[in-house]
Amino acid sequence: MKETPDRLVSVREHFGIDSDLRVPAFSEPEDHVPEVDPAYRFNPEVTLAILSGFTRNRRVMVQGLHGTGKSTHIEQVAARLNWPCVRVNLDGHITRLDLVGKDAIVVRDDVQVTEFQEGIVPWSLQRPVALIFDEYDAGRPDVMFVIQRILERDGSFTLLDQNRVIRPHPCFRLFATTNTIGLGNLSGLYHGTQMLNHAQMDRWNVVATLSYLPRDEEVEIVVARVPEMGDEAGRELVESMVSMAALTRKGFAAGDLSTLMSPRTLINWAENCQIFRDPGLAFRLTFLNKCDEAEWPIVAEYYQRCFGVELVGSTPGVDAGTGSSGPSR
């Protein structure tokens, strides 16, 4: 692992953003560098926010609804900079010991000895690594206070068990993704999220919001992910699918639906279309069955608007049958 970036890259060339900025990068990837996704579409504002983290060592938080690609956005920026990246999901099972480290019994020269094993935080701090905390607002309070120590740009980290102070590597970077900006589960969508300490939120230098892609870009993403839908008929079907997703998002915003279709759901739907050869059946198995049955008629109405046919099996308690409910591929 190289200690520092050894070249500058053009933001215009690598990210397709109209900017003269040049950012530091590594010339060669190593094992912790994410793979480049050539189909990924960058949001200009969010990309520049993330690049400020890499260039100026800002602490960057990316917030937005599920499926918008928050973590992937950070990873794809890192991939194009060949910057090593480690992603940690702060679910309820992550403990302070997982982050800081703990004593473990190891065998040295056929003798069992107790040895301290560093957690992911001290390991990352000492290397040119971008550390991403996923689901940041789902972390346990004791875990969050561990993280608060490293939110200061030049803040040192004390390993109490080792009586050792770790100073951050000059190229260590810190990012986080969140659904609620630390406000808790106000919408009822994100169970398990917590209200975050305001003093901790204040330590994040940059907070960017990532929304869903424009319609045309979303169509291109789906087609890139499912190349079998790249012909004229396939694109027409994908455009109808994207329209359907947009209606569910409007219905969610208006309070008519309790769930919505993310880009991830759209891609799953397109892939399932290739398996079942029936967009209606694929839609039911991908999205409709995740919805509250009381909302099925609303979803069926959206489907009829986008595809011009009734959605078979959209009435609770009625056998779906095997009839087609849309143009097949």
Automatic annotation (TrEMBL):
This is AAA family ATPase. Residues 60-182 form the ATPase dynein-related AAA domain. Pfam families: AAA_5, CobS_N. InterPro entries: ATPase_dyneun-rel_AAA (IPR011704), CbbQ/NirQ/NorQ/GpvN (IPR050764), CobS_N_dom (IPR025865), P-loop_NTPase (IPR027417). It comes from Ralstonia soli. It comes from the Bacteria. Residues 3-33 form the Cobaltochelatase subunit CobS N-terminal domain.
